[in-house]
Structure formats: structure tokens, C-alpha cells
Amino acid sequence: MTRDRPTLSVIGGGLGAGKSTLIAGLLARPDMARTGVVVNEFGAFGVDDLLLSAAAPKTSLALLQNGCICCRPGNDLSEVVRNMITAAETPLRRMLVETSGVADLSAVIARIGADHALRALVRLDAAVAVVDATAPDDARPEHLAAADRIVLSKTDLVPASRAEEIRRNLAGMNPTAPLFDAAALPGPDELFNAGLIDSATGAVQPNRWLRATGTVHVHDKDAIRSWVIEFAPQRWTVLTEQIARMSRAAGSALLRLKGIVVDRDDPRPLAIQMVRDQIYRPVRLTPETGGGVSRIVVIARAPAAPAIEAFAARLGAAPIHQKE
Q1: How far apart are CA 60 and CA 63, in angstroms?
Q2: Which of 56, 157, 174, 249: CA 20 to 30 A from 288?
Q3: Domain boundaries of the chain, sorted by first residue
Q4: What CATH number was assigned to the domain covering residues 206-314?
Q5: For 269-306, what is each residue's pLDDT tens digit?
Q6: Residues β-bridged to residue 230
Q7: Whole-model pTM?
Q8: Could you report how far apart the first and last alpha carbons of the chain are, in Å?
Q9: What residues contact residue 62 under an 8 Å CB cut-off, 6+ apart?
Q10: What count of Cα atoms within 13 Å lies in the side-chain half-sphere of residue 265?
Q11: C-alpha span between 148 and 108 (Å, rounded)
């Protein structure tokens, strides 16, 4: 990967969750200069792009309307991004895509991952899920499972004890995603910069990317579960067969898989990732990465549990015990 391409991050969340407010606040920061924003509206008339344009008049903005990115035909997003990059007076450093309030973030990420024209233009970075603290149950489990970062908005409108309870629940549903409060956001390099490659230095950042520790454990919340599975080195050809077998058995209940695995036939570990049934191309890392132990995080709906437990058993991982 070259670092001259802008990064692209996706910000998703339900209607009224606070996506546009979050982006407007970010665009006011000096370190968000050279940022382009694409707003996806489900309807034929856009409002959020007008609000963002008023909040940040110097920002390059584009509206993608009449349908969600995740299900609309064609390559409209890649065409819009190409036009924005070409028209920019100074090279864009990053691009943000605000999904419509009815879009499925996991489907958007899978769609972008499969768009080779778009991936030639940008370096994929963070998927950010915005959750409204006043209506946390409106957050789609698929949004949370696909997220690299979770932002909790409107915490000032709920009791502190309730906000803390929501944070615990969100952390249990996706243990790999750092959780931030919209009222106290960090800088963009911490909020974004979630890819395997550091957007500033070009260095590989496997621990920050995976954020998984422990052996095998399960979190359970609203029928979404997450497993962290550690196992001894495997032959890559064998592991791919096992992942495919697990994916077929889990079906649509499998939401996300990511990990760093040690290949018995190659000293260089592999970074692997799936969103739904979209498999990203594995990335070879340096030999010292990973510490000699393979670690995979799986996030899925409850019906996938037997397939994932069988997958762990075939890899020789410890038995999986669900936390009550």
C-alpha cells in the first residue's frame, strides 16, 4: 500500500443517532483539514449535507442519494470519490462516508471491500458505529459487530449509571472496538487510523488493529456473541479450509472475523478479516509479529455458536464456556 492515497472511514448509525453532529464537530478541528465527506441519503432530498456544508463551508462535500450504499446497484460511491479526489485543490488526506440512517453498516463495509475500483483510490480505514444513549436498543447488532470504533452520543441526556451500563453492554458485544464518548472525542488519528497499516507512519500495527487478549471466552448480549480464540500455529491451507467450513455452517449468523494467525509453513504471520461472507485478501506481516500464537476474534449471532465451537475444537483451542 502507498500512503499517498487518502484513507476512507465509514460512519454509520440509526436515524437521529448523531452521525452528522459527530462529523460536524470533527470538521471544526484544524487536524481534520483536507477531509472530504460523502453523505448517503436514502431519499431524493438531502439535509445532512446542507447542515455539514453550513458547519464546515471549506470542506469538500458530496451527496449520494436515492438509496443506501449497501444495496444500490452500480459503483456510484467509487465514482463520487474519484471525482472528489480529482477536484480537490490540495490532496485529500482522508475521506468520511456518512451512511443513511437505515443502512446496515456491515453490508456497507462488505460492499466497499468488494469494490476494487474504490480500493484502488483509497486506503480503507475505520468503520465507526454511532449509538444514541437515549435509544441504545435502536443500534443494530450488525452495526456494532462490524465497527472498528463505537461512539456513544447524547450521554448528557441519560443518568451516569445508565450510560455506564450501556458502555458495558457495547463492550461485551464487540470487544475489539474502542468505545468513545461523543462529548469527549480524541483526535482523528485515534478515532480513525484503525487499519492494519498506520495511516501516518505506514507501519504495521497488529495489536491496535486486533485488540484481543485471552484464550477462549464468550460475551453474550442480545443474542450477539463474541469469541476470542487462541490456538497453535496451523498450516495456512488447513486453516482456510477450517474457516470456510465454519463460515458455511454458521451462514448469515456469522457477522465478523478478524485475526492474526501463524502459518506453520511460513515465518510471516497473516492478518485475516471477514465481514459477513466477504473475505479480505490476507496480509503477510513481519516474522516477529504475533508472538508465535494465532488469535482470531469471531462476532456472530447465537445460532452460529455450534459452528464456532466446533471450529475452535478442530483447532485444538480450549473448550468454550459461555459467560453468564
Answers
A1: 11
A2: 174
A3: 7-191, 206-314
A4: 3.30.1220.10
A5: 998 988 877 777 888 888 877 677 888 988 888 899 99
A6: 295
A7: 0.78
A8: 43
A9: 36, 37, 38, 39, 49, 80, 83, 84
A10: 5
A11: 13
